[in-house]
Metalloregulator ArsR/SmtB family transcription factor
Amino acid sequence: MDETTEQLNRVFAALADPTRRDLVARLAAADATVGELAEPYDMSLQAISKHVKVLEEAGLVTRSKVAQRRPVHLDAEVFDLMTKWIERYRRTAEERYRRLDAVLSRMSETDQPQEDAS
């Protein structure tokens, strides 16, 4: 498998978990530390840290050090990769539906009773 496919596999696997999807949604609004991310959940700081690590390994987030804080940032570039992948299959599906619509339209036209010209 090529690197792009591997990264997509990691991203989609990371986003399969509802807690990680929620973390991504929250990070879309603002950067946060692991402690801040953990606040609304009934799970340990270590568990949230593991979720963040999975997101980080998938390339969805990065961490930096600002003074004593270590904020987690959402990395939007990975979403571009996902969007391109999804868009390719969306276009293919739309083309198939257009062809199906054309076939159904032709079938509908042939099913119409012909008016008698006499």
